[in-house]
Amino acid sequence: MMTLEFIGLVGAHEASESDAGNGQVVDLPFIKAFAQTQAYAGFDKVLLPVNTRAPDSMIIASYVAAFTDKLGLLVAHRPGFQAPTFAARQFATLDQLSQGRAAINVITGGDSGDLQRDGDFLDKESRYARSGEYLEIMKQVWTSPQPFSFEGDFYQVRDNFTEVKPYQKPRVPIYFSGASDAAVEIAARHADVYMMWGEPLEQVKERIAQVRAAAQKYGREDQIRFSLSLRPVLGTTDEEAWQRADHLLAQAQARLGGQAIQPDSNTGSQRLYQLATARKVYDSCLWTGIAALSGAAGNSTSLVGAPETVAEAALEYYKLGVTTFLFRGFDQLRDAADYGRLLLPTIRERVAAYDAARVGINLQHHK
Fold this sequence. Notes:
alpha/beta, 8-stranded parallel barrel, 4-stranded mixed β-sheet, 12 helices, 47% helix
């Protein structure tokens, strides 16, 4: 039996591929309403995303921490733009202020163009090597009881001792994203949770096996958990949900002027784009329409159907080893409320029944 975790998302304003938003860059009433809706809906955490065009994820996280009590704060963070010792202090401070609600989502790759807008011109292999050193240092800052030094290719640290330690012991949880071989290697060494976009069951199964095999070298194959990011499209019936998916696609096409976007340079986008352009639907209800249109830029595939249909599809991923689901909608506030009312409880019920049946089978075997 594995503990289920649900992650939502809080951006600084309401917008999506199908929704242009209200034009505000930092919309305080929306941030507050969206975070509190997801807390009420039963999400465990929310992701605070990172982008060179967007407001700062760490500062938004601090704001969200102030008016929520239990909602976890998964702060997307790009290594390389500040010293790892400094970033570790920021996360330890947020963890203290929120009383153990901070987590880091390490974003190494992403779109090279977006990284270059912030002055980072390292190639992908070097970026992942730098991320490995960055996390090595952060972990030492969080856990070392005495001053430590570090000598690497990217960072040198001498006699660092940081008084502020995380509220969580031994440290802040590390969520890691990245589909390349270099990413898998760093995740195998450092990640508590390896995050994947919503690919078909067969591809997710292969990726979990790949990461576990890489983690085995470090004796961590049973320590890494797996997260899947999806955009559920719900309806009272499957037919209604598919009608809504068609409507969302039409809205997104209108926003983009009917032009499909080419994928980013990162491996994950290219993989997902190939899958999305090959087929519109995989497995029972995995829909790739928005991913194909948007160049698979980020979390863009959907499970489409009535809540029971989507919950069954989620259960199939759980059976493969996925225990964390990151869900965000296209109509963000409405979808978050619907997920809490209709989807999350149904998934929890299906998973509990599946786990209970497995326990029963194991007990029978031992008699």
